[in-house]
């Protein structure tokens, strides 16, 4: 099996409702989808979501990196067998992108597309390389930023659809009032997490967390900006609320440093951020080995492609405490697959059992929703 | 759940729909009329099935209204001569889109299939019914106020004659009554199935969190942040 062609789609799918947090506001998906084709005509799809404030990638640099650095090094070569995820991941060479922490979104998109293609070619599901350990996945809801009234409205919606785990975006002047109001709207039976997206100072983090801890907070995600891990370790000692790392956890080296410093109670593992399934598995395994809990996170505005990959990862990990994503058309005006990947009542969703990633991507939708389409061949 | 609160939400949706650039283009003679007509047909070809579903869930106080709506959709009420899907087929043919009928029918059927196969967000039919009734009544509310403008735009700028536009003219006349009934039926539904005001309003707001008219009639233009 040789890859003979690829198409890159920079998407702009409008959201049905703006999504905001302390670092940014999004009104549309800005994913990059990769479609690869092999010499038998089999196609595979992958997706990455560049985030300048996380991996340092942008849509433009991701497209350029895929076309200039990654694709030429896999095009025309014989791929490892479909059943060998680690082999497929090492087949994809290590690359660097100037100005970026790591070109992980690009890598993830190509890795997923190759894996999808390799599995489809032999008609096998993802379960053949990532055996599931559970029969369904339970997702968390998210309360985005905005006024406290809007946060309460979102929390009521989460309650109406029976979500059992909810995360609320914080990092604003009214954090304590916000969290208190959300907790009141959700009631006591829902686990509540906070996500500051690195917006707090150390002192602010301690003050807010001390104030809201009695409300029952399961974890606080990225309370401080990415920086010295010792700051997170110190915060972990200073607050009763468990600390989850997200922007601080991009590479396997990050995971090692965080473990060494005892700086995290939870790892938020996101496939696009972490550079694909193989590296996400490796990071999660490092955490689990030392008792660090794992959340399978998602990218705001991801399409069914990345959601499907996240579903497989969440189903396969030995231990997973929280799972995010699979909002589908709850957030996107249109998703790209025939099958809906959106979770249902209580945030529950079944496994995807079809070949490859388990979804059928509608190429026409990609083309219609793309602001840029680039064709790549074995000639580059 | 107070009717005035729901009415205000509907009014905001209608205002955003008629204030959208796509609607303005329709009235200004530069809209994508073929796409619009196809989208309207796709949105409403299966209305009899959806109204039948709602009739099955209707509380006693709303059952009579919903049965009337269903009979009308099916062309079985005295004042209505033809089934509404047939009026939409007439519209497509008159617009030169007869060759697209099979495809639009298939799309409408697929939309119903998607509703049935997607994981349910709500725990019981009680909530599903309220969400579905909200959307149906929202369309009646909008059509009672806007379908005349749409018909005029299609006649003026797309050359469609009155018989082809009967689906719109019919709705502008009938839906004034339907819309008022529908608002009352929403309240009756919420009361009969013992929703608290907060619960009912949350489901209504969630159903209307994006502009349902823009989403159905201008499919490629749905955008976050559109004022409602």
CATH level-two architecture of the largest domain in chain A: Alpha-Beta Barrel
Described by strand count, sense and barrel closure, the largest sheet of chain B is: none
Quick check: average pLDDT of chain A?
95
**Uncertain stretches of chain B:** 222-228
User: How large is the radius of gyration of chain A?
Assistant: 20 Å
Which fold name corresponds to the CATH topology of chain B? Heme Oxygenase, Chain A
What level of helicity do the residues of chain A show? 25-40%
How large a portion of the residues of chain A is in β-strands, by DSSP E? 15-25%
Number of helices of chain B: 11
Major beta sheet of chain A, specifics?
8 strands, parallel
Amount of beta strand of chain B: under 5%
- Assembly status: heterodimer
Q: Using the alpha-carbon principal axes, give the shape of chain A.
A: globular
Strand order of the largest sheet of chain A: 7-8-9-10-11-12-13-14
Mean residue pLDDT of chain B: 91
- Overall CATH architecture of chain B: Up-down Bundle
Q: If you had to describe this structure to a student in words, what would you say it looks like?
A:
The complex is a heterodimer of chains A (380) and B (228). Chain A is built from twelve helices and 16 strands. Chain A has 380 residues and is α/β, with parallel strands linked by helices. Chain A has two domains: 137 residues, Enolase-like, N-terminal domain (Enolase-like, domain 1, 2-Layer Sandwich), CATH 3.30.390.10; 223 residues, TIM Barrel. An eight-stranded parallel beta sheet of chain A has the order 7-8-9-10-11-12-13-14. In chain A, strands 5-4-1-16 form a four-stranded antiparallel beta sheet. Chain A has a two-stranded antiparallel ribbon with strand order 2-3. The longest helix of chain A has 18 residues. The relative contact order of chain A is 0.17. With 228 residues, chain B is an all-alpha fold. Chain B is built from eleven helices and no strands. In chain B, helix 3 crosses helix 7 and helix 4 packs antiparallel against helix 8.
């Amino acid at each position: 099996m040789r890859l003979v062609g690829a198409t890159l789609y920079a998407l702009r799918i409008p959201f049905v409702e703006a999504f905001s947090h302390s670092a940014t506001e999004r009104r549309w998906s800005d994913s990059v989808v990769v479609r690869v084709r092999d010499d038998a005509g089999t196609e595979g799809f992958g997706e990455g979501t560049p985030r300048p404030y996380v991996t340092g990638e942008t849509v433009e640099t991701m497209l350029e990196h895929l076309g200039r650095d990654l694709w030429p090094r896999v095009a025309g070569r014989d791929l490892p067998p479909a059943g060998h995820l680690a082999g497929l991941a090492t087949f994809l060479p290590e690359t660097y992108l100037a100005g970026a922490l790591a070109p992980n979104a690009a890598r993830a998109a190509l890795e997923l597309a190759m894996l999808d293609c390799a599995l489809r070619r032999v008609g096998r599901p993802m379960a053949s390389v990532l055996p599931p350990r559970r029969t369904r996945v339970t997702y968390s809801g998210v309360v985005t930023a905005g006024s406290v009234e809007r946060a309460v409205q979102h929390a009521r919606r989460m309650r109406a659809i029976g979500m059992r785990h909810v995360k609320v975006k914080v990092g604003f002047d009214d954090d304590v009032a916000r969290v208190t109001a959300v907790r009141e709207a959700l009631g006591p039976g829902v686990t509540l997490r906070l996500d500051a997206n690195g917006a707090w100072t150390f002192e602010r983090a301690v003050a807010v967390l001390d104030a809201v801890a009695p409300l029952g907070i399961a974890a606080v995600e990225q309370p401080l900006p990415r920086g010295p891990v010792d700051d997170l370790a110190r915060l972990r000692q200073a607050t009763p609320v468990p600390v989850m790392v997200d922007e601080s956890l991009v590479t396997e080296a990050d995971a090692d440093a965080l473990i060494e410093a005892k700086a995290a109670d939870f790892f938020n593992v996101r496939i696009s951020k972490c550079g694909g399934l193989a590296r996400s598995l490796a990071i999660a395994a490092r955490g689990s080995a030392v008792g660090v809990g794992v959340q399978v996170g998602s990218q705001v505005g991801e399409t069914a492609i990345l959601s499907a990959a996240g579903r497989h990862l969440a189903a396969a990990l030995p231990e997973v405490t929280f799972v995010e994503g699979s909002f589908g058309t709850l957030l996107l005006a249109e998703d790209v697959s025939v099958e809906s990947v959106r979770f249902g009542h209580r945030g529950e969703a079944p496994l995807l059992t079809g070949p490859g990633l388990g979804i059928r991507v509608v190429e026409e939708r990609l083309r219609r929703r793309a602001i840029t389409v680039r064709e790549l061949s074995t000639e580059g | 759940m107070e009717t005035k609160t729901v009415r205000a939400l509907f009014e905001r949706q209608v205002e955003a729909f008629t204030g959208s650039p796509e609607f303005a283009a329709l009235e200004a003679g530069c809209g994508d009329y073929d796409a619009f007509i196809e989208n309207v047909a796709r949105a409403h070809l299966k209305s009899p099935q959806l109204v039948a579903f709602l009739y099955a869930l209707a509380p006693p106080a709303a059952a009579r209204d919903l049965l009337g709506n269903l009979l009308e959709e099916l062309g079985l009420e005295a004042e209505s001569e033809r089934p509404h899907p047939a009026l939409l087929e007439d519209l497509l043919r008159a617009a030169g889109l007869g060759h697209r009928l099979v495809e639009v029918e298939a799309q409408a059927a697929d939309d119903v299939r998607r509703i049935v196969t997607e994981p349910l967000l709500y725990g019981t039919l009680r909530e599903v019914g309220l969400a579905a009734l909200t959307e149906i009544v929202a369309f009646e509310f909008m059509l009672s106020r806007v379908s005349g403008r749409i018909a005029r735009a299609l006649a003026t700028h797309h050359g469609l004659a009155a018989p082809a536009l009967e689906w719109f003219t019919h709705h502008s006349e009938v839906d004034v009554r339907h819309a008022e009934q529908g608002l009352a039926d929403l309240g009756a539904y919420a009361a009969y199935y013992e929703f608290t005001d907060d619960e009912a309003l949350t489901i209504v707001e969630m159903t209307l969190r994006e502009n349902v008219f823009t989403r159905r009639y201008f499919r490629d233009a749905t955008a976050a942040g559109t004022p409602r």
